[in-house]
Amino acid sequence: MSLDKVKRTGNNRWVADCPHGHHSHAKLHISDAGDRTLLKCFAGCSTWNIVGSMGLKMPDLFHHEMTDSMRKEKRDFHSREKLRHEALIVWIAHHDKRKGKLKPDDAARANQAYKTLRKAQWL
Question: DSSP class of residue 62?
């Protein structure tokens, strides 16, 4: 079965009408996570029901068995991405502080990000 009204929403991400949705505007979000396909219906349909409606089985969502080296590479990539995100938080907080716009909650989050970067030896 093919999906209706499929639109690309980003890198490896799409939205379509949910094939199991009983609501007229049930949207299904689809993401390719590299080793598996992730499905999320915002009308509340379960993944089991969505997969069944498409004539598939749950194992069809998994592309291949990940090796240990593939897991390490993916973990390292996400770690780098997380650290870049933390660095961005510190950078934004620094500029907000210079402009006098840094709120206490944001300062606490920036301090946490700073500690994370120090621990990872990025600073």
Answer: B
The CA-atom distances, in angstroms, between 18 and each of 13, 40, 42, 106 are 15, 9, 9, 38
What pTM, to 2 d.p., does this model score? 0.50
* Residues 117, 86: Cα–Cα separation, whole Å: 7
Residue 35 has pLDDT above 70, yes or no: yes
Ramachandran area for residue 56 (φ above 0: left; ψ -120 to 50: alpha; else beta): beta
Q: Is the pLDDT of residue 23 over 70?
A: no
- Residue 123 identity (one-letter amino acid): L
Domain ranges of the chain: 7-61, 68-119
- CA dist., res. 110 & res. 89, Å (int): 6
